[in-house]
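ok new one. same drill as before - structure tokens go in, u give me an amino acid for every spot. 145 of them this time. try not to just spam alanines like last time pls lmao
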């Protein structure tokens, strides 16, 4: 793969990873607002502008309180990791290779970052798919009319 081709791949997968993390965050808010006692809109406002850490904490507490338990411990661990994953891919990844002057070293580091991106994208995508299915199921089952 040529450098430009690989960079285009990187940009595409990077964008997808950020998108998947946004979907997960939104799905958590919707599931929370649906399951929590009270009005959906009021419940949603509690987390609308909250940072991801608070969203996960509130969601987990509600999950324990309700005995909902549709999210396993491994998924909760990945949700906690997503905060760090998102920070790296949003604020650091390009800087880790862009300013390297030696072309060989720059390419080597870029390739390593591409491998990490691929791993994170697969892990987050799988979680995003599970969260989306859960959101659809919860909204169908618990939606208040």
């Amino acid at each position: 793969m040529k450098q430009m081709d690989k960079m285009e791949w990187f940009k595409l997968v990077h964008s997808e990873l950020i998108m998947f993390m946004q979907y997960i965050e939104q799905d958590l808010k919707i599931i929370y607002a649906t399951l929590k006692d009270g009005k959906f809109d009021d419940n949603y406002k509690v987390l609308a502008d909250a940072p991801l850490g608070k969203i996960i904490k509130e969601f987990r507490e509600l999950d324990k309180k309700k005995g909902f338990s549709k999210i396993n411990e491994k998924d909760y661990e990945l949700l906690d990791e997503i905060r760090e994953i998102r920070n790296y891919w949003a604020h650091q990844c390009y800087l880790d290779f862009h300013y390297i002057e030696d072309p060989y070293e720059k390419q080597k580091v870029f390739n390593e970052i591409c491998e990490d991106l691929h791993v994170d994208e697969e892990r987050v995508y799988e979680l995003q798919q599970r969260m989306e299915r859960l959101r659809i199921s919860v909204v169908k089952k618990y939606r208040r009319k």
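The first helix runs from residue 3 to 35. and btw Residues 21 and 82 are 7 Å apart (CA to CA).
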